[in-house]
Request: fold
Amino acid sequence: LHSFPTRRSSDLEALGDSVAFAPANGEHQIVWHATDNAGNVETIKGPNSVKVDTDAPDAPTGIVVAGDGYINASEQTEVHVVGTAEASSTVTVIFAGAIGGSGHFVNESGIADPTTGAFDIVFDMSTLDDGAIPLTVTATDEAGNTSDSEIIPDAIKDAVAPSAPSIAPDL
Reply:
C-alpha cells in the first residue's frame, strides 16, 4: 500500500489533478480520497486494478519457415511461419527480400495463442525474388514491451522449376 503526502486542492489544481507514482511490476489495487482545506474527507473511491508490466517478453523461439525453410512455387503465396512467443503477444515477422534486385520488406503480424503462445503467420512471398531471404521475428506484449529480435537464418525461395533435362540418344 502506497500513501502519498496530503495535498491541498489548490496544489492538485496546479499539478493538473494528478499524482504520479512508480509501483513495481505486478497487479496493484488503487483506492483514493480527497480531503479539502477544511478537513472534509471525500468518500473513498476505487478500488481500481492496475497492472504494471515494464519487462520485455523473451524473443520468439522454435521458428520454422514453410515447414522446411524452402519456399517453392506451390507454396509461395501461402508461406507459414510458425513458432512460440509469450502468450497473447503480437508477433511481427519481417522478411527482407528483393524485387527486381532492389531491397524490399514483407511483414505481417499475428497474435500468439493466449494459452500456449503458439503462432502461425501466413505470407504471400510471390512478389519477392528467388534466393536467400533473412527474416526477423519479435514479440510485443500487451503492455507494449517488445522483445529482442530473433534473427532466423535465410529462408530459401526457389519458385522456378528446373530446366527439363535433355536426353540425347547414344547412337
